[in-house]
Amino acid sequence: MRPSRSQSEVRKSSRPHWLTRCRTQVLSLAVCATLAACAGSPTYGPVPAGSYRVQSGDTLYGIARSNNASTADLVRWNGLTDPDKIEVGQVLRVVPPAGSSSAPAAAASSGGSASSGAARPRAQAKPAPKSAPAPAAPRTATNRIPMVWPADGPVLANYNGSSNKGVDIGGKPGDPIYAAAAGKVVYAGSGLRGYGNLVMVQHDNGYLTAYAHNRAILVKEGASVSKGQKIAEMGDTDSHGTVKLHFEVRQKGTPFNPRDFLPSR
């Protein structure tokens, strides 16, 4: 009879597999972070008085308006370099720091009273308002790569840069989903809330494409795919019952209009 292995031996032999799984999960979470602005927000702790934590769907303009401030104020108070790029969970100051104000200083009033025959004192010149730093120009895609349409159905919703950071393509359950360009699968799973069964493919020049709400995923993480290869089947996972493909194109985390990369229909 084969002697049984000790508990310490079992733990030791199983450790590499456990560590491998952890590393895979950490990599997947890091890739998913590029889409965090579109997904639901996790639960965070309280923020300091005068601050606000960015929620899913927020824009800097909307946050400023809700707090009686301007976009330029928030850019200045928070040292933002790109006002179009705020992240879910990010804490922003929404009131002026101590010793500063969101409005230019009021003009000093002249003193004394006017009398007949006497010249009125000249009003002091208004100080020039401090100019806020100009918002950073929106990023433009560089070294674009040509892509093919990832699904054949009609376009249900187009990219608008805020509430929709991709295009939604309709169809029937089970319709094929294709890789828009050749690349490597860096995520295949359902761990990102709001996207259902999701596939993400990394391409040349720092581009990444995302394919959401699939009924079935046909590729595995780490697999290389060719342009036009079937990688999933259309479905309605986490899409409130609407069968569709939500397709995004990003470069280094910044979303761009997918139709700028796709051929005209």
Description of the structure:
Helix content is 15%, strand content 22%. The strands form 2 sheets. Strands 3, 4, 5, 6, 7, 8, 9, 10, 11 and 12 form a 10-stranded antiparallel sheet that branches. With 265 residues, it is α+β, with helices and mostly antiparallel strands.
Protein traits:
265 residues, alpha+beta, Membrane-bound Lytic Murein Transglycosylase D, Chain A, Glucose Permease (Domain IIA), ten-stranded antiparallel sheet, two-stranded antiparallel sheet, 3 helices, 12 strands, LysM, M23ase_b-sheet_dom, LysM peptidoglycan-binding domain-containing protein, Dup_hybrid_motif
Topology as a string of helices (H) and strands (E):
HEHHEEEEEEEEEEE
Tally of DSSP β-strands = 12
What percentage of the residues does DSSP assign to strands (E)?
15-25%
CATH homologous superfamily assignment of the domain at 155-260: Glucose Permease (Domain IIA)
